Amino acid sequence: MDYLEIVGGNTLSGDVTISGAKNAALPIIAATILSDQEVTLTNLPNVVDIRTLLKLLTMLGGSVAHDKTVAKINNGTITSTKAVYEIVSQMRASILVLGPLLSRFGECEVSLPGGCAIGQRPIDLHLKALESMGATIEIKGGYVHAMAPDGLKGAKIIFDKITVGGTENIIMAAALAHGTTTIINAAKEPEVVQLCEMIRDAGIQIEGIGTNELTIEGSGGKTLKFQTVNIIPDRIEAGTYLCAGAITNSSITLHKVNHTHIQSSIDKLESMGCTFELHEDSITIFPVTHLKPVNLITMEYPGFPTDMQAQFMALAVMVEGESLIEERLFENRFMHVSELNRLGADIWLKGSTAAVKGVNELYGADVMATDLRASSALVLAALVAEGTTNVRRIYHLDRGYDNLEGKLSALGAKIKRKKESM
Ligand code: EPZ
């Protein structure tokens, strides 16, 4: 397995270009199942999760021409509606094929996604919503077997809690359903908005895009013809690089960002003492010698994103005083705490809140990535730890960061990908 060898102490400088958003690309790739004609997706991030989902489409019989950031997909050739365990267990977001497969083909089998390091990750809200659209759902042998032989019917869906994937699955299911679907308490993340825009641009009437209430007029089973989709910039990758600039007391410029999408991270960094210069689609962070502690509560968009929690914790580790970080979305998203403490951090957990006491120095050590965002937090801490840090199990990182070590070394970090000796 690969690991990253990082020697701390360098300040960073220069420019970094943000890639397309993994969490926008995944539902958009799933949505191509709603069409039997070719559709082109551009600005895809070059990460493992994208390749995994494109592989699933080909396993279903779809045809995919994929070259790093561009994919031409034609799902007119789909012959199977069974999303097998070997793929879904690699990436739980594969569950996003459930809604489109069911609404287009009237029946599908999708392996239950495993949980993951950050939590049990149930899909009960997805299934309940599909049942209210007329589907019958059976769980057998680790698979969701969904049937709607006469097609799905529009329904009024009220989500008990805001779910990004659940909202996305139902938007895709509703697109080909018979009649009107209303989703109340819908997620309104930028990634959900782009999915809605893709489906609206194919001629489906959607009201309330960007709000917590969506109304979708289904096509009644008619497949869609999509325009080319240019994936929005990755707001979490952008936030991660802003934290890299802040933790190393550097000035760096991020290109291809959407400021609105990263406003909560900018606000929090400003409250800590960071200053910025914003241009049309770029943002520069400036060096700041004395950062102030931060209090964070993770919330659904536009609140502070749970996917930035670990990265801000790494930053808070080096800030004099005490920062409090409350994780409200996932029950186990503090796996990075023990690894950060191995580098010399002083973090205490009490239920869903972490108390981070600032320390003057971190010391390089061998640490282990446990999930995607925890991995990036360990890399951030390693950038300022004295000596060498080896971040292991970086297959987690490769799922969602496009060339992290290449982008960081171009900014001046001492970071190398190495192979573990057998
Ligand atoms: C999406 O996951 C993102 N993944 C996650 O990013 C992100 O952390 C999460 O949304 C929250 O913003 C993708 O978009 C591919 P949820 P998702 O359904 O859709 C509970 C990353 O690092 N819930 O909004 O799975 C659930 O357990 C990843 O890029 C139910 O109880 O998240 C969680 O506590 C990590 N029942 C909460 O809702 C359900 O049926 C939010 O989950 C569905 C969800």
Going across the major beta sheet, what is the strand order?
A: 22-23-1-24
Whole-angstrom Rg = 22 Å
The count of helical stretches stands at 14
Overall form: elongated
Number of strands: 24
* Proportion of beta-strand residues: 25-35%
Which ligands are bound?
A: ligand EPZ
- Terminal residue distance: 9 Å
Mean pLDDT reading: 96
For the sheet with most strands, the description reads:
4 strands, mixed
Structural class: alpha/beta
- Helical content stands at 25-40%
What does this 3D model show about the protein?
With 422 residues, this protein is of the alpha/beta class. The chain is 31% helix and 25% strand. Strands 22-23-1-24 form a four-stranded mixed sheet, with helices on one face. Strands 2-15-17-16 form a four-stranded mixed sheet. Strands 4-5-3-14 form a four-stranded mixed sheet, with helices on one face. It is elongated. 51% of the residues are buried. The mean pLDDT is 96.
Describe this protein with a few key phrases:
25% strand, 31% helix, binds ligand EPZ, 422 residues, 24 strands, 14 helices, alpha/beta, four-stranded mixed β-sheet
Q: What would you say about this model in short?
A:
This protein is of the alpha/beta class. The protein has helices at residues 22-31, 48-59, 85-88, 98-105, 124-132, 164-175, 190-200, 235-247, 263-271, 309-317, 335-342, 372-384, 395-398, 404-410; strands at 2-7, 13-17, 38-42, 63-67, 70-74, 82-83, 107-111, 136-140, 143-147, 156-158, 180-184, 205-207, 213-217, 229-230, 251-255, 276-279, 282-285, 295-297, 322-326, 346-350, 353-357, 366-368, 388-392, 414-419. The N and C termini lie close together (9 Å).
